[in-house]
Amino acid sequence: MPNPKDTPNPYGHPVYKNWARQSPEERVKGLMKAHGTAADEPRFSDLLYHPTEGSLPVNLVSVTKTSPTTASAIFTFTIPAYYTNGWLNMHGAAQTLIYDNLTTLALAPISKPGFWMLGGVSRVLDVKFLRPAGVGEKVTVEVEVVHVGRAAASLRGVMKDGKGRVLSTCEHDKSNIDPEVAKL
């Protein structure tokens, strides 16, 4: 087992500089910008935040910290062919990836060292698909922190088409992985 003293400080990443003074919007935008900036470690979900051919650049519309333990955010994007199935409708796996990332970003406004700053890990990610969304369609995703405690969080998301019709819903339960600040 590694010695905790040899583990680098996870809060040392530049995105966390001045975290306590950042607005909820600055925190979410900072995480979106920082995601996938390690060129030697590209990830599939990097396509959510960085424009490339066939990517899905997600735009933050608003973010609100409603209490010390609840927050919500709204994002939009236009569906590229890369995220569709053989019928040019957004693939269910793509929707699940989007929910995984965007619901986690809803934790940023309420986080602090030792309390959800690292986003946690998924325990359950349940997506219900209600209607298709085609390539080129503008989509809105509303996400919120329903409940958060020291060890577990309950998040929710709703994806809507340009007419406001619900495309899918998501319930996302997470476990906190932040080390205790005193142990760093």
TrEMBL record:
One of its GO terms (molecular function) is fatty acyl-CoA hydrolase activity. Belongs to the thioesterase PaaI family. InterPro entries: ACOT13 (IPR039298), HotDog_dom_sf (IPR029069), Thioestr_dom (IPR006683). CDD domains: hot_dog (cd03440). It comes from Aureobasidium pullulans. SUPFAM superfamilies: Thioesterase/thiol ester dehydrase-isomerase. This is Thioesterase domain-containing protein. Transmembrane segments: none annotated. Residues 90-166 form the Thioesterase domain. Pfam families: 4HBT.
